Each structure stands twice: as C-alpha cells, then as structure tokens.
Amino acid sequence: MGKPLVGKRKRGHVVRRQKAQEPQLVELEKTCLLIRGAKTSQTSLSFLRDIRKLKGSSAKLFSRKNEIRPLEDETKLEFLCQKNDAGLFLFASHNKKRPHNLVMGRLYNGHILDMFEMGIKSYKSIEDCIKENKRAKTTDSPSFILFQGDVFEKDLTMKTLKSMFLDFFKARVLEEIDIPSVDHLIVISADEDTIYVRSYVVGFKMKSSANKISDAFTTKAPKCGLIEMGPSVDLTLRRSRLAAPQLAKQAHKQPKQNKGPKKIKNVSRDVLHGTSGRIHMQKQDVSKVVTRSRFRKALKKK
Predict the structure, then answer these.
(1) How far apart are CA 214 and CA 198, in angstroms?
(2) How many CB atoms lie within 10 A of CB 123?
(3) What confidence tens digit (pLDDT) does each residue in 233-270 have?
(4) Which residues, including other chains, have CB under 8 Å from residue 83's CB and lie 6 or more apart?
(5) Which of 2, 165, 252, 273 is such that its CA lies 20 to 30 A from the CA of 41?
(6) CB atoms < 10 A from the CB of 139, how many?
(7) Which of 28, 159, 32 has the alpha carbon at shortest distance from 104?
(8) pLDDT for the residue numbered 58
C-alpha cells in the first residue's frame, strides 16, 4: 500500500496565483483600485474615469458605492486591495467639509503604508481637451514623468508625495528608448499651496518634403510640440499619514541582487567620466632621477 496523502494537493491555477503574489526582484506595474465613496461629486467621479483611461488595464474602477473612511478605519480598504492584489488605491468622496476629496495611498505586505488626502481646486477632463484639439487623444505608449518645483525637496511629506506620484504613474522602467514611440508626458509642478498635474501628447513635426518622412526617424533631434491631453487638475494637500520610520525602511529595502556589483575599494563610478580609481605607489627616490644637469654631464663624457 502507498503512503497516505497528507492534506489536499493544490491545483495548478492556485499555485500560479500564489507564485505571482510572491515578492519579486523586478516588480511589474502595480494594480491600482479606483474606489468611489458613499457620496461623490461629478468632478471627482469624472477624474476617476479619466485616470482609468490613462492607466489602462492596470486600473480597476469600482462602479458601486463604498462606505469607507480611509483615514479613520482602513480595514475594509485593505480587504479590497488584498482581494484584487492591488498595491495602490485612489479613493474619491464629497461632503460639505471636504468637497471634491481624493485619498491616494500605497500598500506594503497587505497593509497601508502611507496616504495623502487632497482636494480638487480646478479640473479639466480628457473630453474637454479633445473638444479644444482633436489631436489630444489618449495613448498607451510609455510616458515621461517630469517634476518641477523645489517644494518636492522641502520636507519628508513632500518627498514622500513625490515618490507616491512616481509610483502611481510609473508603468515600467526602460533601458533603451525609441524617441518616436514615446509621445506622452506627465508634468507635476508644485508651489507652496497647490500641486499642478498636467498630461500632454508629444506631437512630432513633419517635414515639408513630398515623401513626408518624419524628423523623428532621422539622425537629427526631431522638432516637437506639447498638446494638452488631460486630465489637468489642480490639487491642494489637506491631510497626510506617513509610514513609521522602521516600516518605511523595511519597505524600501532591496535584495542583494538589485544592489549591483560589489563595491571595490578606491574605485568610483560616474555617469560622465565612467570608472575612475586611485592608485597608491611607493615613495619615489628623487636622487636616482635623471635631471637636466646630469643628462648634460653624460653627453660630455661620451
């Protein structure tokens, strides 16, 4: 008789799902949940729909209303994110005290890492941009992200907010870029009171020749212009909840495989100058060096 089976054998799709949820050396694009609260305004709901168009398949928009207060009780929010295997969320709500409210946050190990509550001051949707310019259409191509303003380096809160925006809009890191294929730009600017988020389409200018060859495919740098694509939104920071220092350190910890080559003593690497090193030599005996006067005496002897 064979040995009795200890426990149930897991099915293939269960094993593959568990393996996909394990920590990876190079993480792919994170799934983002777009959640609407019990009461939402038309402005905040339209912003969620535009973010869904912008992020594509990596975002899930919930059509039903959810009675959630993220900054007071996060258990239900963590349950929804764990169920959908999402590492990011954007929650929209509206009330008299906090109109057109947005809560953006990240998760680590199934629990909320940090959150930011922001309010919408002004908003321009993708449909409004298309009405003004027909070339302003959504694209699924890789996008550049540009941050403007010294406010992002002011304190820990703004630095964390910059990291969250980068995590929210980042799709994947590219080692090589084909210039004509990148036609999307996200610009995030900030001053003391307001955060400006703009999305543009990069339009490459065509040559006036008969064959209509684009400048982007030549060796010269192409001429390009920016067309506002939307969504364009002005935000004000209301409340924030940062992660504990120990938890933040644990979340940003990287494995040894991602740290690159081992550091060599007295060798430094720079983007412009490449690899440079320092060499330590023994003390040189100057008395044995052939000077100009000794060289003349040697010639006279010959």
Answers:
(1) 26
(2) 21
(3) 999 999 999 998 888 888 888 777 666 667 788 888 77
(4) none
(5) 165
(6) 16
(7) 32
(8) 87
